[in-house]
Amino acid sequence: MPRRHRSSRRRRQDNQANRRTAVAIAIPVALAVVVGAIVAATNGSTTVSQTALSNCASQVAFVQPAANHGHGHGHGHHTAGSSPSPTAGTATATPTATATPASTGTATATPTTTATPAPCPSATAAASATPSAASTATTTAANVDCDIIVPANPLSAKGLATPYQLTGPGGMTPAQSGCTMANAANLGAFVQATIVNTQTGQLSVYDPLVITQGTTAAVAPTVPTLPRNAVVTIDFGFNGTVLTQVGATANALQQGDCVNGQAGSAFGQVSFCNGTNFFNEAFQLEREGRLTVPSEGTSGKIVASGGNLGTGQDCPTTRNFDMVDQDQSDNVTTLYLLNPATGQTAQDTTANAANIAGSATLANGSDDILVDAFMDPTLGCTPFEAPDLANNNTPTTSQALNELLAAKNQPAIAALVPENDEMTLDGNGQLDATKTNMYRAEVGQAPISNQNNQNDSPAMYCQNMVNIQSPFLAANQTVLATGPSPVTAVGDNLFTFLANRLSMSFTNLGCQNFGLTNPVSVTLDGNGVAVAATLNTTTQKATSTTGTATATMAPAQGQRKGRSHHQLMNPSGM
Prior knowledge:
This protein has about 575 residues and is an alpha+beta fold.
């Protein structure tokens, strides 16, 4: 993904048989997808590439204008209202396939740009000289899971500065499994810490480094200075299917209060350390007036939509139904630098970028990057930021900051992680209230209740996503079409990306099981990329409102069930 906003402005299952095969930002459809994102800095531009499991034609997701590329204070970010080039290609694509649901569209979008993406690069080509990245061809294609070794005392300054190690599952080496940071597009892992000072309420961010097991850091991580009585939360993201935490010492995971899911049923790409404690402390500090979280802000660029259901001209947050997908609140905004010559990684800082010649930037496709780096700048909004302790306190974003912002500015109809999110299904693929509540607690969300089930039961989550997001995309298609696509294998601009993402999310959540109709009709080009979309904005009503863990979310005929968050049915990865 592109550079995180570094401005000083404010805003903003373990059961492997049942895992979804999809991508890294978060979406669904029977489209060959991608498992991650690798951003390569080339000739002054930043390219986000998604390596697909098949249909590998659509790779280049975003090319940031050279003028916006940089680090630190010059860290490239889109200014409000900018219209950067959405793709790297220049040839116009001719639509060859149209997917039309059984509904009549009321808002048609004509894409402002189409492109023929660059051919698929090799996931490990950039670091072919690295022993850990060599000889992975026979195993990388089959393996989609990795382990991450968590250092001792992970919540301490020393623990944060100790590199996490990425390795293969079940005793496989990085080379055997493809679990290398040189292969980050497919199996890269990312870690992000957010810190709150319990005395002052000051927030800060620190991105611990992930290295390939058996290697060393390209540059030793900066040891952060933590305030006394700091409370730290650590979020994990992954560009594969299941990332399993493994303690470097016998009690490392206990020391960090780390959560991977339930026994026999992992969340999948994401996991956490100390999230529940962090959010409880942060919310208490807010109530006491010691922590101030800003408003989400408004923008005149946003066209109000959805009537009483919509959020007017408020800027989007990760709990708004106008931007959520099948698995909200997942993955992180962390970026790393890769030395292509050695396969070593380093923290993404101004100094490291200057000292590592030809460094590439690695990213974790996420809902948070989608909001912070794509939707916000296109809609004239800015993200909520805090000082980066590894980069001279330069303002930066984080998943936890986005959740704090969303909690403070939660709309009347708020999107909370639903039970039909495949990361919260149990080991048998059934709804699991306990596991859903465990996930929610780690991202600062309220547990399931009769009150919030009115919006976020499986049926109502689907209904609200259809009735709020469809009119939002239709009303704002003109401005969204000026924004770059996060993944050009999914859509050729931000609008077509979001529309295709909504269509895939509808399918992956089993929304059709509640008597709802997919509101999106997508026109695809010869590479399966959405180049136009039509939205039916007619209000729909679910015919079933079951919100308890008593039903199995069976996929529609021809659809695949299983978690591989972002490979087959979720090509967008966001």
